[in-house]
Amino acid sequence: MPCNDTLIDSHCHLDAPEFAADLAAVIARSREAGVRHWVVPAVTAASFATTQAMALRFGAWPAYGLHPLYIQQHRDDDLALLAHWLAGRDDAPLPVAVGEIGLDGYVPGLDMARQLQFFEAQLKLARDLDLPVIVHIRRSQDLVLKALRKWRVKGGIAHAFNGSRQQADEFLKLGFVLGFGGAMTYSGSQRIRKLASELPLDAIVLETDAPDIPPAWLAGPPPTRNEPAELPRIAAELAQLRQLALPEVIRVTSANVRRVLALP
Predict the structure, then answer these.
(1) Residue 1: what pLDDT?
(2) Most CB atoms within 10 A, among 9, 72, 107, 117?
(3) What residues does a divalent metal cation 1 bind to (predicted)?
(4) 250 φ, ψ (degrees, to nearest 5)
(5) Which parts are annotated binding residues for a divalent metal cation?
(6) Which residues are annotated as a binding site?
(7) Which of 116, 229, 245 is nearest to 182 (CA)?
């Protein structure tokens, strides 16, 4: 579904191994579909260089962070390395956020105390560097909100939001916007669809989380790899839920990404 307006995929992992073999083709399909800007959050210290190289090659906006799903891989000195990468350098694009960071209460066996240690350390870095954050909040919304109230960063994106309306409002009070993507396209995702239809439009950004969270039309079986080129169809789903024209949804949600991440 090509579109004439430019969409921003506010969260996709173009640096992931799943794209290594055909990334140029993935980017070409994305641009043809009208998605010509991408925010790409790194997830481990080992991936920072790959994220930067991808951003330099294709003009993506990088973010650097230590993802809670990989808490068993993260070392204490990764935080110092993260601080170095967040400071940037003259010949590379500056990071637009600290991310992907946060907490995960869904996957069993993840040490929540250590997750909190790394999350708060990264929030302190974001506050000290005056950077927004991109937060992972799976089954951890209240714990994430508590940490955000403590550290008072400059806002950011609550990625793949699936909490309550009350929790949504609390994120908005802290200067965040909420990311909606593939999960919103499933008819059974009633709470997410209700939130997407009722929240202020200036509180919403669109994302794919590619290669993950495939939209309903890619669900399979077997499931198909998600790509940024699917974002116009996700935008059309949001437009239909809100009974708005698609160009208006594209215009506002893309402006929201630029505002909260201070993008050019």
Answers:
(1) 46
(2) 9
(3) 11, 13, 100, 209
(4) -65, -45
(5) 11, 13, 100, 136, 159, 209
(6) 11, 13, 100, 136, 159, 209
(7) 229
